[in-house]
Design a protein that fits this description.
- With 367 residues, the chain is an alpha/beta fold.
- The protein has helices at 84-101, 156-166, 191-204, 240-247, 261-282, 307-315, 328-338; strands at 3-7, 10-11, 17-21, 24-28, 36-44, 48-58, 125-131, 134-138, 145-147, 173-178, 209-215, 230-237, 254-258, 294-298, 320-325, 343-350, 360-366.
- The strands form three sheets. The chain has a seven-stranded mixed β-sheet with strand order 13-12-11-14-15-17-16, sandwiched between helices. A six-stranded mixed β-sheet has the order 1-5-6-4-3-2, with no helix packed on it.
- Helix 1 runs parallel beside helix 7 and helix 5 runs parallel beside helix 6.
Length: 367
């Protein structure tokens, strides 16, 4: 394969540097905008190419020495070669750019990115894989395992659990190691940023709200924190184990439903609209009733909202919509449709996953 001289122009969502070769985009991992490199083309397509660094000709002032001996081979981290402040700048820019490129959202109010208090030693759980005596993570772009003794982005308690696992004879398979025992349901991996996210979401809730519908509610991470802001809370999730956890210690105003989110969300919003219409007819002076009294919170998986859920939200539009996303491209796609009925008040990136290419985003929308 040929070797070419390139200047890195940007860092794309996913973590790879972007350069141009006769107009064609070339993606090069572990590079930073402004750097000049000699790179070997390893894969070439009609619209783009992929390359690897052969030689760093000019380095960025933001380049640092990665502390992890596995960095560059392990598929987990993408940014350990970049100082943390610049990681935040890159992620902020990536969110803004993807909203413009995919969502065609040009004038969105972007709030500053919320950093993680810890750039390392923050993960409260990791999942390692065991195969033929090797325990660790998959190599980048591969299903081959790297033997891992310690993960520097994980909490010390998690690394102690890893050391204990490595001291045993284990069967081939996958092992999730946690800092604390608890129900085996989805939860955020960075406790400090998760708290900041929950506090941010609380700021988006207007006064005088009657109903919170928390779709993809899990064990009630958001719903339980917002109980005092609503007269009634309904959580929906497909994971019955998460719903069982949410129901424990639930009070009278909480309802949690295990089921298909498309069907249940439509049913709950339709019922809320009917109840509010009846109350509005009986109390025309009560400004709380009608769609102005319902807040919908969605925190979908990386695939984003389905087309049916997007249509349900547009058709049965609540007054306030809060969208928490772990995938800016699908978020941008969904917002492009949701803005038929909603105005985007703010977009706030959060660095839930330092050193990785992942980005969390919270969006506040109003009818």
């Amino acid at each position: 394969m040929r070797i070419i001289e390139l200047k890195i122009e940007d860092v794309a969502f996913g973590g790879k540097g972007v350069a141009r070769d006769n107009g064609k985009a070339v993606f090069i991992p572990f590079t930073i905008e402004g750097e000049k490199v000699s790179a070997q083309i390893v894969r070439e397509k009609k619209q783009f190419a992929e390359a690897k660094v052969v030689d760093l000709k000019e380095t960025s002032p933001h380049r640092v020495e990665p502390p992890c001996p596995y960095f560059g081979r392990c598929g987990g981290c993408a940014y350990q070669h970049i100082d943390y402040e610049h990681q935040l700048a890159i992620k902020f820019r990536q969110v803004r750019n993807v909203l413009q490129r995919i969502g065609k959202l040009k004038d969105v109010s972007m709030r500053p990115i919320i950093p993680s208090p810890l750039a390392y030693n923050y993960r409260n759980r990791i999942t390692v894989h065991a195969q033929e005596g090797v325990i660790g993570f998959y190599q980048r772009d591969s299903h081959r395992l790297i033997d891992i003794e310690r993960c520097p982005i994980a909490l010390d308690e998690v690394n102690r659990a890893l050391a204990d696992l490595r001291g045993q004879r284990v069967r081939d398979g996958h092992y999730t190691l946690r800092a604390e025992s608890g129900p085996l349901v989805f939860s955020q991996t960075n406790d400090a940023v998760a708290k900041a996210l929950r506090d941010l979401v609380a700021q988006f809730v207007p006064g005088g709200q009657q109903l919170l519908v928390d779709a993809y509610c899990g064990a009630g991470f958001f719903a339980k924190a917002l109980l005092d802001r609503f007269e009634r809370v309904v959580g929906i999730d497909w994971d019955r184990f998460a719903i069982e956890a949410a129901k424990k210690n639930a009070i009278a105003k909480e309802t949690y439903i295990a089921g298909d989110i498309e069907n249940e969300l439509s049913r709950v919003l339709e019922r809320a609209r009917g109840v509010e219409a009846a109350v509005s007819a009986a109390n025309p002076e009560d400004l709380r009733v009608g769609t102005r009294a319902t807040t919908l919170l969605v925190d979908p998986p990386a695939t984003g909202l389905t087309a049916n859920i997007r249509r349900t939200i547009v058709d049965l539009a609540p007054s306030t919509l809060i969208y928490v996303s772990c995938n800016p491209p699908t978020l941008a796609r969904d917002l492009a449709e949701l803005q038929q009925k909603f105005r985007i008040e703010s977009v706030t990136p959060l660095d839930m996953f330092p050193q990785t290419a992942e980005i969390e985003v919270a969006v506040h929308l109003r009818l």
